[in-house]
Amino acid sequence: MNATEPRRRWWPRSVRVRTALAAALAAAVVLAGIGWWVHQEVYRESMTIAEERAERTLAALVDQLRDGSVPGPRSAAPYEVVATGRSTAVASGGAMQDFDSRARHVLPAPPALSAPTPDDGGGYTMRPLRIPDRRDYHSEYGYDMAGKTYSVLYNDIWVGELGKDKAATLGVTAGATLRAYVVVLPDTAEEIVSTTDDLLLRAGLVGLVLIAAIAYVTVRIALRPVEAIRVLTASVTASDPRERVTVPATGHEITALATTINSTLQRLDDAAAQQRRFVADAAHELRSPLTTLLASLEVALAYPERTDWPAAATTAARQTRRLQALAEDLLLLARLDTRTPSTSPETVDLTALASRLTEQYPLNERPLTLTCDSVTPAHAHGNPDEYERLLRNLIDNAARHATHRIQITIRNQDAWIVLTVHDDGPGVPAEDAERIFERFVRLDDARSRDQGGTGLGLAIARDLAHRHRGTLTLTPRTLGACFQLRLPRAPTPAEK
Question: Of 140, 380, 385, 431, most Cβ neighbours within 10 A?
Fold first, then answer.
């Protein structure tokens, strides 16, 4: 077998066939249990009927013997009457007459009695006895009893209480003891059980086929919406992900599946559109500095004698730095899109980090005031470099648009750290409060006049906030823009 060839399985792949087989298997187990219970109950009831019949036969024999009558051979149950002092049976019937009547009696003789038994009003004793396998046995009655063990009912009669005339009629001495045996045959019960088992087997097989067929048809009908969903989903392509599946109005699990698939397709469509928009915006952003750089270099090469080479080199260096910053931001966004939320065990004091960035941030080009008015430690789990990048992006954005002042505030609020960066610039319209976090978004107001930014700073900052299980939002302010960062607070050593 080829190593890449999938292994063949005996279990069918079709859900319809699997469900039908599973339903048939479950039904087979249930029917087998019911069949076993019916088998036991039928056999028990049949044996009870056989014992009652044997009991009635024994009572009739005892009555006949007490009347001094010799029972005839015709009997519903095999019986034999034996007596002490006599080698042959007094009487036998049923299947017992298949033994030679001139030979010794089959069942053992009773012990001799000298008085009537205490319970002679119809009581009997039952115990298992083995029918001997003798040469004088010739089964002609329909039962092959020789050599088998059966339950036997018997009752003893003292002939002394019957009188000499009845003893003579029965062919025994006046002081003899009679014992009437009746054999409980299970043959009828076994035949009934065998017939019942055969009927149950046939009915069970037909039932299993019907259950499997009903399960197959039911699942096939139930899976029709799934097949329709599969066909429509198969038509979805990367170039046209706008196809949507029909949501059934039944309200069952298929409806939830269709709704989920439509939601997934919508997310894929949105992601594809966002990716296309991102690629187009990235190409546009890269084209602008490249065009500027190429134009200045071509002009310089075309007129080398009239070119201010230091100024040309300065322009080329500025555009190259812009390209470098844009490439780094694009690479960082690509890494953030493929990484899971941060589980770094490191603890970062955001107050100390914000204070350090405030002191080190260059503000030489513009007369701005950058302050951090928090002194209480604010610890959060995460990557220190990523936290620094997040705060630096917020400060860079505020510095590009602030008029005179930037203020950073940090406070502990229950299980959260709330950090705000507030500038006194032109602010952001309320309808654009979320758009500014999208990649390469350009607004029409004064905040769109980017002075060296890549258009990705706020998008990177929000992704870093989400990566650390936090949020970054723009809160309403009457003056300027205020960005609020909420992060889970790490417990201090005193709180552990």
Answer: 380
Which position has the token pair 């053992």?
Answer: 108
**Across 13-27, 30-44, 124-138, 140-154, least confident range:** 140-154
d(CA 220, CA 488): 50
**Residue after which a domain boundary falls, among 269, 302, 337:** 337
Residue 241's pLDDT is 67
76/142 same-domain check = yes
The string of pLDDT tens digits covering residues 106-143 is: 899 898 877 776 654 457 889 999 988 888 777 765 66
User: pTM, whole model, 2 decimals?
Assistant: 0.50
- Sign of torsion, CA 249 254 260 263? negative
* pLDDT (0 to 100) of residue 1: 47
pLDDT given at position 205: 92
Q: 109 lies in a domain?
A: yes
Please indicate, yes or no, whether residues 316 and 375 belong to a single structural domain of this protein. Answer: no
Q: Which residues contact 114 (CB under 8 A, 6 or more apart)?
A: 158, 160, 175
Instruction: Give Cα separations from 463 to 34, 334, 471 (angstroms).
Output: 63, 11, 9
Q: For residue 157, tell me if it sits in a domain.
A: yes
We report the CATH number of the domain holding residue 300 as: 1.10.287.130
**Count: domains in the chain:** 3
3-state secondary structure (DSSP) of residue 453: coil
The whole-angstrom separation of Cα 342 and Cα 468 is 5
Closest C-alpha to 390, from 484, 319, 254: 484
Half-sphere exposure for 301 (CA within 13 Å, toward CB) = 6
Q: At 364, which CATH number?
A: 3.30.565.10
Q: Is the pLDDT of residue 271 over 80?
A: no
Name the residue range of residue 300's domain. 253-337
Same domain, residue pair 305 and 264: yes
Q: What is the Cα–Cα distance from 437 to 452, expressed in whole angstroms? A: 17
Helix axes 384-401, 350-360, angle to 10 degrees: 50
Contact 82, 110 (CB under 8 A): yes
